[in-house]
Amino acid sequence: MNKTVITVVGKDTVGIIARVCTYLAENNINIEDISQTIVQGFFNMMMIVDTAKAGKHFGQMADELAALGDEIGVVIKCQKEEIFDKMHRI
Question: Whole-model pTM?
Answer without folding.
Answer: 0.88
